[in-house]
Design brief:
Helix content: over 70%
Structural class: mainly alpha
Shape: flat
Number of helices: 3
Radius of gyration: 15 Å
Largest sheet: none
Number of strands: 0
Distance between the termini: 43 Å
């Protein structure tokens, strides 16, 4: 049930990227790199969640990653 929905979501994301590609190219270089980086991370997470049978909680991983970057008391 979930995988067909995920593939539909991926198709919609690809359609939006194709439609917005012209606008992404007109933006500043840092905006392009941030957009492409976010797209790549999202695709990596999507592939990881879709194809691996191991349960993986994205929020836990993000929390560990962000805690290394933020100066917390």
């Amino acid at each position: 049930m979930i995988k067909p929905l995920m593939f539909t979501y991926l198709a919609m994301v690809i359609a939006v990227i194709v439609m917005d590609f012209k606008h992404l190219r007109q933006g500043a270089a840092i905006n392009r790199w941030l957009s492409y980086g976010l797209i790549a991370c999202s695709l990596g997470i999507w592939i990881h969640v879709t194809y691996l049978s191991k349960t993986f909680f994205i929020t836990v991983w993000l929390t560990h990653w962000i805690q290394r970057l933020l100066p917390l008391p």
